[in-house]
Amino acid sequence: MTRDKVLAAALRLADTHGLAWLSMRKLAAELGVEAMSLYNHVASKSDLLDGMASRVFELIELPDPALPWPDRIRALGVGAHNTFSAYPVVVGALASDQANPRSIGALRLIDALLGALLDAGLDERAAAQRYRSLLGLLFGLVLSDSMTAAGDRPERDAPIADWFGRIATADALPSLHRVLPALLDQNCAPDVEQEIEFFIAGVRSVARTRRKQAGRGKQR
User: Fold this and answer.
1) 3-state SS assignment for residue 101
2) CA 145 to CA 190: how far, in whole Å?
3) Which of 37, 42, 103, 187 has the highest Cβ tally under 10 A?
4) Nearest alpha carbon to residue 131 among 119, 143, 113
5) CA dihedral sign, ordered 31, 49, 4, 39
């Protein structure tokens, strides 16, 4: 028995049954051991969740640091999205602050992202803001996709599309009326690569503004 084996089993069970279902007792039963023996490898349920988050972060391949910063952000963004999409239950735990990645391997991903943002010309505060923005984007895409894929929605007296169709008229809500068919189309979903390009464009804009402000400061 190893910590890696415990975390792998926990990820598998959480993916199948959900995070709320997971307990130390059920995990021990899956591994064929007594629950108390798990505490030789994880200190608590919180440590287990943090370990699961760390394991997911560590699966994301880091790009060559010699690449231009936009290429690094593209690689990290797409790689993180693909990995997070395989473990949406962990993304939910991260987004709700039930878990935090607490390993040096997981922190290397964060360091690589921040390094790319600093190389883009952002200062420390702007890099932190853009880092949180990118994580929020990726978490939102993954959680939205996982909810759509689940398909378990309660039955309603009338389909929500019918309600929107009646309420969002051209006169009352012209913009919503115009875009409604696309909004109701399940295939009209954000494209992660395109969203990352928008993000990179925003980083360039912030860095450009910062350089202009720095230039004005030197002229005074």
Assistant:
1) coil
2) 10
3) 42
4) 113
5) negative
Written as six digits, the tokens of 104 are: 């040096």
What whole-number distance in Å separates Cα of residue 30 and Cα of residue 24? 10
- CA 206 to chain CA centroid, nearest Å: 22
Q: Are 88 and 142 in contact (CB under 8 A)?
A: yes
Q: What are phi and psi of 23, to 5 degrees?
A: -140, 165
Terminal-to-terminal C-alpha distance of the chain: 66
pLDDT of residue 217: 65
Condensed to tens digits (0 to 9), the pLDDT of residues 35-92 reads 898 888 998 889 999 999 999 999 999 999 999 999 999 999 999 999 999 999 999 9
- Is the Cβ–Cβ distance between 53 and 45 less than 8 Å? no
Range scoring the smallest mean pLDDT among 21-30, 41-50, 152-161, 210-219: 152-161
* Environment class of 118 (CB within 10 Å of its CB; exposed 0-12, middle 13-18, buried 19+): middle
Name residue 174's amino acid: P
Q: What are the angstrom distances between the C-alpha of 57 and each of 34, 44, 116? A: 29, 20, 17
Rounded to the nearest integer, the mean pLDDT of the chain is 90
- Could you give the dihedral angle defined by the CA atoms of residues 27, 45, 39 and 34, in that order, rounded to the nearest 10 degrees? -30
Asked whether 84 and 91 are in contact (CB, 8 A), the reply is yes
